[in-house]
Amino acid sequence: MKRTNYTTDEFRKNCKSYSMACLAGAVILVLIAVCGLFTSIYCLMQDRGQYS
Questions:
Q1: How far apart are the C-alpha atoms of 15 and 31, rounded to whole Å?
Q2: Which ranges of 1-52 does DSSP label H, i.e. alpha helix?
């Protein structure tokens, strides 16, 4: 693996692009978690009257 030396501007540019990618990934994971939570609550509410 070749090692490269970054200038300050290149380093800032790379950090900004990596932070945007991490932010997008975090938003997607939060949306998946919220959808899973609402789905499980909805299923529990639908099954509530079935026990008779």
A1: 24
A2: 8-47
Place of tokens 């990596």: 18
C-alpha distances in Å from residue 47, one per residue of 11, 25, 34, 37, 51? 54, 33, 20, 16, 8
Q: Is the pLDDT of residue 38 over 80?
A: yes
DSSP 49: G
**Collapsed DSSP state (helix, strand, coil) of residue 3:** coil
pTM: 0.62
What are 5-20's pLDDT values in tens digits? 878 888 888 888 889 8
Q: How far is CA 29 from CA 24, 32, 40, in A?
A: 9, 5, 17
Q: What mean pLDDT is predicted for residues 20-28?
A: 93
